[in-house]
Amino acid sequence: MKSFILTILFTLLSIGTFAQKNNFQLSTHILDISKGVPAPGVKIKLEKYNEQSKIWSPIDEKSTDASGRIPDFLPSEKENQGIFKLTYYTKDYFKKNNTESFYPFIEVVFEIKDKNHYHVPITLSPYGYSTYRGS
Fold first, then answer.
1. Residue among 84, 92, 134 at smallest CA distance from 113
2. Distance (Å, rounded) from C-alpha 126 to C-alpha 103?
3. Structure pTM?
4. 85-120 pLDDT tens trace
């Protein structure tokens, strides 16, 4: 059992290592924990908050790949500090999978304060979600 757990941990760490692109500062990932698989084809919008005008400005919009990932938000050569929001449009994903759900979309707001890489994954189920700052 112990070796099985170590194998899973090593696999998860390896996936995270290869999931991001070095020339981009932000990545995200969706894991559908109700099925134990990645969530492909979920549209995600990235916006930046202007603290003076109190307005969100769209930056980019992409869909998750077959592994539930978007590895290439925010090119690293730009100044990317500030408050950002990722909006995960989950309603269509669940509808496509013939699954009732509670959240039609999920908004995750976070702040980038430096030039480090930020990975913002979510674990998703029809009636709940969780997020954290990954690596």
1. 84
2. 7
3. 0.83
4. 999 999 999 999 999 999 999 999 999 999 999 999
E-state strands within 19-79? 24-32, 37-38, 43-50, 55-63, 69-75
- Confirm if 56 and 47 have CB atoms less than 8 A apart: yes
The one-letter code for the residue type at 14 is S
Please state, in angstroms and rounded to a whole number, the distance separating the CA atoms of residues 15 and 92: 26
Please give the structure tokens belonging to residue 51: 């603290």
Buried b (16+ CB within 10 A) or exposed e, 90-123: beebbeeeeeebebeebebeeebeeeebbbbbbb
What the block records as the tokens of 42 is 């979920």
Structure tokens at 66: 């077959």
